[in-house]
């Protein structure tokens, strides 16, 4: 039997792909990241018609959450959550969390409270099907290049939180940061909480460095701990108190992050359970 050129190419690809995947850490990294994004874009195709039935509505966030929850199993990432009790607050609140990578989506979906929407950069709205799904789920988009516009969107969000009983999730570092620490915090999340007079609940995701590193193109299986810290109240605070509030919350998060980073399996809390 004679093979055509196309068939030969297919055979070579089928043999080369798994070999490259196993031999090259970088190739594996690129494949896993490409599949991550591609799979989310594909899931969004399914989510869009389901969400469209309700129109733009924060309840649609549950649909996205449900559809994304299995991804941690595909990637062999074990997520341990601590501090669930700190989410036992009926009133709206602002969640602030560290932002290492787009993989944060996994930790976020693991604990996302009901009626909670993230604040995202406007560019995400144009990320094809994922952008449309986010819009339908009520994600709040801000233009980071236009501070005044971003502030007015967030001021409107403070009103919506109270009127419509909505919680908001903000990444106060304002960008992804995989440096092993926390960047200085932007102030928006804290102005938002003070304006609405609602608590700030800090969430810290442990460093991914054992299983994921963009610089080294490393992406293996691993474990991540997500800690929900006690809420910080803002009743009676004014905008003058925002810098101190932001510093205090960052201090709490940095302490938790450093503590979690120093924990290793078998040593202290967070080891093997
Ligand atoms: C199945 C299918 C699935 C599909 C798929 C699903 C995915 C479903 C999940 C998506 C998940 C997305 C996750 C995305 C994650 C990101 O996109 S992260 C990037 C976007 N997020 C952020 O930027 C964080 C929020 N940013 C901020 O809060 C920033 O403060 C702002 C509002 C953008 C302003 O930025 P800035 O000008 O660079 O920073 P900043 O120094 O903080 O502010 C300047 C001044 O304005 C003041 N200010 C700031 N905010 C305010 C305010 N609200 N009121 C009054 N004054 C204010 C500050 O106090 C400061 O004044 P001074 O203190 O210097 O006097
Ligand atoms: C037809 C257009 C096709 C567009 C293809 C875009 C591919 C994107 C595919 C899937 C989107 C996955 C949604 C992941 C959400 C995580 C968001 C995220 O991590 O955004 C980064 C942002 O926080 C900070 O941005 P920078 O670190 O400042 O940068």
TrEMBL record:
CDD domains: LPLAT_AGPAT-like (cd07989). The keyword Lipid biosynthesis applies. GO terms for cellular component: membrane. It catalyses: 1-(9Z-octadecenoyl)-sn-glycero-3-phosphate + hexadecanoyl-CoA = 1-(9Z)-octadecenoyl-2-hexadecanoyl-sn-glycero-3-phosphate + CoA; (11Z)-octadecenoyl-CoA + 1-(9Z-octadecenoyl)-sn-glycero-3-phosphate = 1-(9Z)-octadecenoyl-2-(11Z)-octadecenoyl-sn-glycero-3-phosphate + CoA; pentadecanoyl-CoA + 1-(9Z-octadecenoyl)-sn-glycero-3-phosphate = 1-(9Z)-octadecenoyl-2-pentadecanoyl-sn-glycero-3-phosphate + CoA; 1-(6Z,9Z,12Z-octadecatrienoyl)-sn-glycero-3-phosphate + (9Z)-octadecenoyl-CoA = (6Z,9Z,12Z)-octadecatrienoyl-2-(9Z)-octadecenoyl-sn-glycero-3-phosphate + CoA. Keywords: Acyltransferase, Lipid biosynthesis, Lipid metabolism, Membrane, Phospholipid biosynthesis, Phospholipid metabolism, Transferase, Transmembrane, Transmembrane helix. It is an enzyme of class 2 (transferase). GO terms for molecular function: 1-acylglycerol-3-phosphate O-acyltransferase activity. SMART domains: PlsC. Its EC number is 2.3.1.51. The keyword Transcription regulation does not apply. Residues 93-208 form the Phospholipid/glycerol acyltransferase domain. GO terms for biological process: phospholipid biosynthetic process. The HXXXXD motif is essential for acyltransferase activity and may constitute the binding site for the phosphate moiety of the glycerol-3-phosphate. Belongs to the 1-acyl-sn-glycerol-3-phosphate acyltransferase family. PANTHER family: 1-ACYL-SN-GLYCEROL-3-PHOSPHATE ACYLTRANSFERASE (PTHR10434), 1-ACYL-SN-GLYCEROL-3-PHOSPHATE ACYLTRANSFERASE ALPHA (PTHR10434:SF65). Converts 1-acyl-sn-glycerol-3-phosphate (lysophosphatidic acid or LPA) into 1,2-diacyl-sn-glycerol-3-phosphate (phosphatidic acid or PA) by incorporating an acyl moiety at the sn-2 position of the glycerol backbone. This is 1-acyl-sn-glycerol-3-phosphate acyltransferase.
